[in-house]
Write a structure and sequence with these properties.
Elements (H helix, E strand, L loop, with lengths): L1 H27 L3 E4 L1 H6 L2 H23 L3 H41 L3 E4 L13 H10 L3
Parallel strand pairs: 1-2
Keywords: Signal
Protein name: Molecular chaperone Skp
Organism: Fervidobacterium thailandense
Length: 144
């Protein structure tokens, strides 16, 4: 009986350690957070620079429109310019949002997040899980 006592105790302790370790893992759960994509976009350097650039283009188009006397031609040119500007904005915003999404993935890997959600599609999220500020700091310090 003494011969089996030590191996049995060892097996019981091993099983106990595995059970306790598994219970600890399930209690901590996945690391998650959410970001406000609108706030991120408005604070993203490339978007800020693009907005300045597009405003310069709008001012240039407005100056050209001011020179046109014929109201019909002026309206036609205005609609053309508006379409050009809207296409540039949509295209650039799509590219920048794709860049930001890639940065979110990098941030999640670096910081050990299992899930990062978009706050615009959530019904509710506790402020404790809002990581927008941390993500913005990461964007400022990450290699461009």
């Amino acid at each position: 009986m003494k011969r089996y006592f030590f191996p049995v105790i060892l097996v019981i302790l091993t099983i106990f350690a595995v059970v306790v370790g598994t219970a600890q893992d399930s209690k901590s759960g996945p690391k998650l957070g959410y970001i406000d994509p609108n706030r991120v976009l408005q604070n993203y350097d490339k978007w800020i620079n693009f907005q300045k650039q597009i405003q310069d283009e709008i001012n240039k188009y407005q100056a050209e429109l001011d020179k046109i006397k014929d109201q019909n031609l002026k309206q036609q040119k205005y609609l053309e310019y508006q379409q050009i500007i809207n296409q540039k904005i949509a295209q650039t915003q799509q590219q920048i949002e794709a860049e930001i999404l890639q940065k979110v993935k990098e941030f999640a890997e670096v910081m050990g997040y299992d899930f990062i959600f978009n706050s615009t599609t959530m019904a509710y999220g506790s402020q404790a899980y809002n990581i927008t500020d941390a993500f913005l700091r990461y964007l400022r310090t990450a290699k461009k």
